[in-house]
Amino acid sequence: MRVAGAVALAAALATAPAAAQPREAPASATREQLTIGITQFPSTFHPAIENMAAKSYILGLARRPMTTYDAEWALTCLLCARLPTIENGDAVPETAPNGNPGIRVTYRIRDDATWGDGSPVTAEDLVFSWTAGREAATGMGPAELYRSLHRIVVVDERTITLHFDKLTFAYNAINDFQPLPARLEKPVWEADPRGYRTRTLYDRETTNPGLWNGPYRITAVQAGASVTLERNEAWKGPAPAFRRITVRTIENTTALEAALLAGQIDMIGGELGLSLDQALALEKRAASRFRFHFQPGLVYEHLDVNLDIPTLKDARVRRALLAAIDRQQIVDRLFEGRQPVARTFVNPLDWMADDSIPATGFDPALARRLLEEAGWRPGPDGIRRNDAGERLSLELMTTAGNRSRELVQQVLQGMWRQAGIEVRIRNEPPRVFFGETVSRRRFQGLALFAWISSPENVPRTILHSSEIPREETNWSGQNYTGFRNAEMDELIERIPVTLDKDERRPMWRRVQEIYAEELPVLPLFFRSDAHIWPRWLEGVRPTGHLAPSTLWVEQWRVAR
Description:
The protein is an alpha+beta fold.
């Protein structure tokens, strides 16, 4: 989700081929520039360190992964020449060194894949990414991918065979295996693996053309405010329509809307744009100027619970918190009923969703009873206290400037106050909230944000006990709640290696049952993203999942 062993490597190529000549832009492209507004700014530009939707959106313009899921939710190649399968012979089951069923999968990098400085994207770039990712001190994710990939064989400069010690139902999906330009990044990593995440050229020399292999490359960065990208002269795929794209960060969604209406930005990226309620209201006023597209998807709005906080360790308190809020009323009043209440983290759009799972609904009487059982009784001011006289007081955080989330916070605060729970609201800019507070588990109560996932996403990074961020792993992992459950760990291990879909179904049900029983996270609702485009822009295809629409920016065009 969002969704981060040393071997001898060949020396980097001493010379690089001349950059390819840029292709002619489509004849219909009468506009040279496109300005996009989003609500967050990345805390890092490194592809494999930290998971943040803003980074994925921007890097979708400038990088291409080996594989991804497309708008039809089908696995497809972007940087590889063809998708390896058992049927076409590029994937072959084998016995892994640990004695388990494994698989070897051969990928060929596209012959025209080139970094922005003209150097080819090679097998060495993938080997370096694997080598750095396997070293815990590096703090790259996802750790499980690097662990299960136990061997890489370089067939030739463009071809590699990956040997996995597990045969999974997603054996050929290496969406998170990010090629890194070894000739640039390897010396930085070798000098100090633990310090690499703060010394990477992706943050110290972000405009270096050699870091980017997509249709665009980053040419200017104004920290916290904007990223400018221009056509990558070395890109050999279809020519993108715009000479320059600027992605502006406007963290306050009211200001973002104002910038759109004033013509300061051309469009709002739905992956990180206006909330549904704002977009619905804007559509009524500005439908003649803009096209509005509402994309349901695997976007899960929720409250992460810091289980190290003594009050929140008690599952009765967590269940009471959920029972005290009327989520359907929130959805009805704020979003016109157009976002489904979440039972667990599994979206109804995913095949394994099970709506028969018993779930905690709005039940104020149950909330009061659970709090009484947990030793929290009403005080003279209505706020509950325990036998030691401590107030039932919690901190609630989210991304500052997001009007929808701030409204949800206020509603939650009021509903919990009715149950005798005091909630203090403290918000931070997204780059601080995600880059420091959440990723290092510094929030002192509840954190309100959204996960974006891919289809049938096994929740290892957010629920497996080995994925709890720790200093010794340089804060990799996304289990920000600190959830530990042996049965959940076992299920997360078993689901990927169960190839038969019908056999996975009861396992998925049990995962959802544990989640609903233990409530390491308080489910809120599944979001629909509001994409707002100028009427002259065509070809944008939202996916409704983890892959941003920018991964297909070369298909965007100006209407004739």
